[in-house]
């Protein structure tokens, strides 16, 4: 890449960071805990979110934003949970940006929410560079993707607070090497908490919810 | 995205298109047939390429370029075939660009090659927008990714000349709906040829090689 292009890229990221900081302050003020789900395409973000909404909904007030290049399929699917859902269509942009989040929140009373989930565009690269003001970034990593992916896409693992191995129910069918996957994740991000999950069989979802609730409780809320 | 950013993006793509046109002329002049393999992360580009190199190598002169953010794992893996392999490390860039290809070819005698394979960065979005001067773009789509992906990432299917369904050996384990996948691919790109493959079981590789050889033979070569 030429110097000019790198400069423009830095400019875009700097602007995004400023907007993300503003969003973060707004989320904290409203007392809403924001989770950014990132992964490659088809790792199972929507399936996990469907389950998560269903399990949290009885006790918490939740909404979700869903990013995709095209279609409203995921929003339609998630709306069945009864939670407020908005789709963000990114066109040809391969990630969500803070500005898109700000626009999509228009008209929502954030103070009425306990959790806001953001499902990013399926991409292991660029979503890593775009802060959305979230409290927690969770990277999903499916047993079908190959144990080497943390080494090949280090930034998304480096910048995440939690990793979810997904589709653990088909681990045997794809000869998934769990030890190697853990080792590779911890090579790029030592100590990153990892939870094995299957949305289909509901494995690991209790541990995921415990982690979410603990982190939400631990997040400082504004003095009323 | 603001107008300024869209303008810069158009500028980058225009420059890439010019370089790609120059590369295409160079490839044609040298009589080398160039294949660009694109897919999401973990769809099996390297596994397919390993098989392809092994099967073509007795009769054809082949080289490959492999793009990744980090690591030389794929190049090391492919080099076992005996073919000349070069790794392109893209850093934080989520796709290959024509300029990277031009740089990576430095010192190679293209006239001595029948096939040049380019394995793109694992990403269903941006590689669609970057022409690399290739003769054939093949999109890989794994049975584990979900049948809806062609609708959610239409551009990469729209701009491809051939689709390969991969990991067909685990189709049952993941409840893959083949008819729906075909229907969705053809909704975004009517008539796109599709081959079902499994690099593990060697399914569909003969059909893939027949397609490659036919297309290579059909490509006009320069008058000596």
Structure description:
The structure is a homodimer of 224-residue chains. Chain A has a 7-stranded parallel β-sheet, with helices on both faces. Chain A starts with a helix and ends in a 6-residue tail after the last helix. In chain A, helix 7 links the parallel strand 6 (162-166) and strand 7. The radius of gyration of chain A is 17 Å and the shape is globular. Chain A is of the alpha/beta class and 224 residues long. Chain A is built from 8 helices and 7 strands. Chain A has helices at residues 3-30, 45-56, 73-79, 98-104, 149-152, 154-158, 178-188, 205-218, and strands at residues 33-38, 62-68, 85-89, 115-119, 136-142, 162-166, 194-196. The model of chain A has no long low-confidence stretch (mean pLDDT 94). Chain A is 39% helix and 17% strand. The A-B interface holds A 1, 5, 8, 12, 40-42, 68-71, 73, 92-94, 97, 121-126, 128-129, 142, 144-146, 148-149, 151-155, 167, 170, 173-174 and B 1, 5, 8, 12, 40-42, 68-71, 73, 92-94, 97, 99, 121-126, 128-129, 142, 144-146, 148-149, 151-155, 167, 170, 173-174.
């Amino acid at each position: 890449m030429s110097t000019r292009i790198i400069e423009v890229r830095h400019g875009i990221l700097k602007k995004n960071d400023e907007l993300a900081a503003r969003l973060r302050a707004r989320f904290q003020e409203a007392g809403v805990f924001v989770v950014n789900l990132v992964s490659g395409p088809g790792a199972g973000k929507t399936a996990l979110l469907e389950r998560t909404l269903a399990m949290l909904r009885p006790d918490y007030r939740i909404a979700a934003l869903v990013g995709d290049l095209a279609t409203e399929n995921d929003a339609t699917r998630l709306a069945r949970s009864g939670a407020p859902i908005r789709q963000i269509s990114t066109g040809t942009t391969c990630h969500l940006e803070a500005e898109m989040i700000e626009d999509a929140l228009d008209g929502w009373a954030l103070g009425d929410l306990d959790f806001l989930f953001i499902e990013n565009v399926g991409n292991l690269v660029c979503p890593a560079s775009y802060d959305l003001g979230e409290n927690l970034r969770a990277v999903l990593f499916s047993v079908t993707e190959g144990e080497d992916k943390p080494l090949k896409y280090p930034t998304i693992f480096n910048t995440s607070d939690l990793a979810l191995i997904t589709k653990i129910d088909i681990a045997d069918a794809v000869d998934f090497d769990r030890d190697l996957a853990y080792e590779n994740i911890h090579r790029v991000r030592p100590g990153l908490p990892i939870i094995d999950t299957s949305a289909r069989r509901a494995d690991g979802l209790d541990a995921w919810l415990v982690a979410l609730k603990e982190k939400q409780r631990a997040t400082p809320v504004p003095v009323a």
